[in-house]
Amino acid sequence: MFRRACALALMALLSLTSAGAEEKEKPLPKDLPPYGAVKPFASPQVTERSLPNGLTLWLVPRRGFPKVAFAVAVRGGLAADPQDRPGLSELIVATLDQGTKTRSARQIAEEIQAAGGDLSGNARADSILIATSVLSEKADAALAVLADVLQNATFPASEVDLAKRNAADRLRSQEADPFFLTSRALMKAIFGPHPYSVISPTQDSISQTTAAELRQEYARRFRPDQAVMVAVGDFEPGKMEAQIRATLGNWAAPREAPVPAAGKPVQSAPHAAFLVARPGSVQTTLAVGSLGPTRGDPDFAPAQVANAIYGGMFGSRLTRNIREDKGYTYTPFSYLNPRRHVAVFQTWAPVRNEVTGATLNEISYELNRMATTSPSEEDVKQAELYLIGNRAIDLQAGDSVARELASLWVFGLPAAELGRESEKIQKVTAQDVEAAGKKYFAAARQAVVAVGEEKVVKEELAPFGIAINPAP
HSE on the CB side for 40, CA within 13 Å? Predict the structure, then answer.
């Protein structure tokens, strides 16, 4: 009886599964309504000011929600770190709020939390970003703490030692992650000796860094004539400007010249494969990458649309090919990652060992399809709707707007560029996408990185006839 019941249950389950499969295979109705009207993100009204000490202010009042987001970007990020201290910017960020001349680390944390937020930092390629989002009625108190950290950080030796231990532990953890290993190797393959190749510290740079070095580098970089303060939220612009002038107006720039910015990379990504051996790995993490257009380049919007069609959205060609059709991977994706002087165009796919070569073949096929054929108007329309819609959602939050405006300033672009982004995307044509594909997408332009079992990777990639080198 038990066996018969199990058999009946199994038959019922198979019947439901089969019915579900048939249901999924039904074509979509032909009378679906057309796409709705595009609702692009509206450019915020930005009040721009410059203080006598050189500090740039971008103020964006947004009534109706009782929060204020602050973002401060200081030029000179990972690409400005000394050659013998790669990743030093990450240690600056980790210890910046651990004490000032008048506040302890605990006092800083408690005062910011009392205002409804916390301080966060991010070391980027071209800048260091410090941000917080607080209740509007507590904005003055939060601004006082933020201003103190920007001008008077002391980097206590005990806190630096703790931060160094945490950084070393974090790096060891990252080096067990194939995505981190792939990213580090890909940036080194693409940029070579250029400082854009640095994405993290090394164990040597962490161990050798001293509190005195952090104080010295902080004094060189944190200067008003190399910084922007962005405020977004529920405030009156005149009052906010007056408060910022009161707290940051006496921030003095040192006499020394600013930290030199990283120059434009001169080399192109080599068309070669780079191996990061991961003994015993049951999958290969593949990445291909090359240089792309800057955020302010006329090619950027067409390249964004081309990337969405290729691999930058869930319905992309790459997803339909190696996920939906062939089942090689669950999460392929691609994106453009802009820096001040260049962007990086990247494709990622973690796959089973036995389909490593087949996956790279399909990635190359889709890249070359973008480089040699024109997309349909439907492809372009879907990509534009995706990009504009996602952007509008992302920028609903005040802290997202503040961070994005700070990034634009670092890239040397005006605040109005935030609103122009949607306009530029809407104007992209199939011909524009085809031109961007030819310029940036050809497989022969890409460097390839594979993290996985060495024997598997070499056997799987051998038919491609490209050099397989140890990762730099």
Answer: 14
Tell me which H or E stretch contains 128.
strand 127-135
User: 349 forms bridges with which residues in the sheet?
Assistant: 286
**Number of helical H runs and strand E runs in the chain:** 17, 12
Residue with tokens 């970003």: 129
Backbone φ and ψ of 471, nearest 5°:
-60, 140
pLDDT of residue 259: 85
CB–CB of 346/453 below 8 Å?
no
Average pLDDT over residues 81-105: 96
Closest CA to 214 of 311, 90, 61: 90
Q: Which helix (H) or strand (E) holds 133?
A: strand 127-135
Q: Is 279 left (phi over 0), alpha (psi -120 to 50) or beta?
A: beta
Q: What is the mean pLDDT of residues 91-109?
A: 97
Task: Please name the helix (run of DSSP H) or strand (run of DSSP E) that holds residue 11, with its range, or none.
Answer: helix 2-25
Q: Which domains does the chain have, with CATH numbers?
A: 47-248 (3.30.830.10), 273-470 (3.30.830.10)
> What is the spatial distance between Cα 149 and Cα 247, in angstroms, rounded to a whole number?
11
- Alpha carbons 422 and 420: distance in angstroms, whole number: 6
Q: Count CA within 13 A, CB hemisphere, residue 173.
A: 6
Q: How far apart are CA 139 and CA 147, in angstroms?
A: 12
How many Cβ atoms are within 10 Å of 327's Cβ, its own excluded?
11
What percent of the residues of the chain are helix, what percent strand, and what percent coil, each to the nearest 5? 50, 20, 30
Two tokens at 189?
């393959």
* Per-residue DSSP letter, 437: H
3-state secondary structure of 431: helix
> pLDDT value at position 440?
96
Taking the C-alpha atoms of residue 439 and residue 83, their distance in angstroms, rounded to an integer, is 32
Q: Tell me the three state secondary structure of residue 276.
A: strand
Q: In what order do the strands lie in the sheet with 283-292?
A: 333-338, 343-352, 283-292, 447-452, 273-277, 468-470
The model's pTM is 0.89
pLDDT tens-digit map of 391-415: 988 898 999 999 999 999 999 999 9
Mean pLDDT of all residues in the chain? 92
pLDDT tens digits for 173-192?
A: 999 999 999 999 999 999 99
CA separation for the pair 281, 265 (Å, rounded): 34
Place of tokens 């260091």: 128
Q: How far apart are CA 156 and CA 96, in angstroms?
A: 10
- pLDDT band at 26, cuts 50/70/90? low
Answer yes or no: is pLDDT of 39 > 90. no
Alpha carbons 98 and 154: distance in angstroms, whole number: 8
Query: Which residue, 249, 371, 255, is CA-closest to 303?
Result: 371
